[in-house]
Amino acid sequence: MLLWPITKQSSYKVKKIKLLKKLEDFYQQNKDLLTENYPGLNYQILKNFIEDYGLANFDKDPEKLLLQLKDAVPFAYILGRHFFYDFEFHIDKNVLIPRFETEILVHCAAEILKSKKVNSFLDLGVGSGAIFINLLKVVIDEKIDLDCAHASDISTQALDVCRMNLEKLDIKKDDMDIQLIQSNRYENLSHKYDLIVSNPPYIKYNADKKNVHFQTDKYEPHLALYLKDSEYDAWFDDLFVNTFNNLNSNGVFLMEGHEDHLEHLKEKWHKYAIKSVEIINDLNQSPRVLKVIKE
User: Fold this and answer.
1) What is the pLDDT of residues 18-66, one digit of tens each?
2) Residues with Cβ < 8 Å from 248, sequence gap 6 or more?
3) What is the three-class DSSP state of 285?
4) Taking the model in full, what pTM does it have?
């Protein structure tokens, strides 16, 4: 009896079918848990994720990956990467996973840069560099003449992730001073800027935590998420006075904030010499960005 030889290609197809069958069985057995862990998840989304992860990687240690899924580890941390705005970024547990709602902050800052009235900008609390690097791309693409672009973070591990992304994405401009600076807010910063952007921790630990998805609370860095309720106002008072002092005349401050607290934080700016302060909604029409223009 003549048997057709098994080629490498057909062998791979057999292995792929077996792996996907294992994945489908896992999904059906754990469907309720998985959809609780990953809102909106269905089998096709899970299959696409596994193929993005790499079937070869899945084949090496399927049980490890399936356990991570049972434990609700965010996809971005499993993959070690996440797409935001114009780039795919390296992501690990030391930085927040960039969110869709943060795109409005990038868009607002990009429009200010394109006006070409900015010679310097700072990203305060840079994390992975998702905001900073997308804004640097605007500067490069639009041929904007900037003296400096600085980014700071209290976490040296976050700065390492940002540095890795700058190198990976080959973002540089020879005639511009690009610096990453370890700093707790403005502690180690002495420059004045025309534009300051920030996505600081803005969730009240007690009052707001109940609305934070458990996956976010379990795996993402609390230092970048939460502030103590009792310290919330004082923390932002310190941030705002130092922001004002580190802005040039006509400088702009853009900050992402909590939809329940932005109106209160906006009121704090009326004691400063400013031209305007406003709240900008995100694409879901939720209050998201505080925009301040200094006199």
Assistant:
1) 888 989 999 999 999 999 999 899 999 999 999 899 888 888 888 999 9
2) 120, 192, 193, 194, 294
3) coil
4) 0.91
Q: Which three-class secondary structure state does DSSP give residue 31?
A: helix
Question: Hey, is 97 helix, strand or coil?
Answer: coil
Measuring CA to CA, which residue among 208, 202, 161, 201 is closest to residue 180? 161
CA 268 to chain centre: 26
For residue 9, what pLDDT is reported?
52
Alpha carbon distance, N-terminus to C-terminus of the chain: 90
Question: What pLDDT, in 10s, does the model give residues 62-95?
Answer: 899 999 999 999 999 999 999 999 999 999 999 9
Distance of alpha carbon 134 from alpha carbon 66, whole angstroms: 33
Lookup: tokens for 287: 């209050």
Both tokens of 12, joined, read 């791979």
d(C-alpha 84, C-alpha 103), whole Å: 8
Q: Tell me the sheet residues that pair with 276.
A: 293
Burial of 25 (0-12, 13-18, 19+ CB in 10 A): exposed
Q: Write the DSSP assignment of 199-216 as a string of letters.
A: ----EETTTTGGGS-HHH
* Burial 126-165, CB ≥16 within 10 A → b, else e: bbbbbbbbbbbbbbeeeebebeebbbbbbbeebbebbeeb
For the chain, the helix, strand and coil percentages under 3-state DSSP, each to the nearest 5: 45, 20, 30
Q: What angle do CA 26, 32, 34 make, to 5 degrees?
A: 60
pLDDT in tens, 212-247: 999 999 999 999 999 999 999 999 999 999 999 999
Q: Maximum CA pair distance of the chain?
A: 91
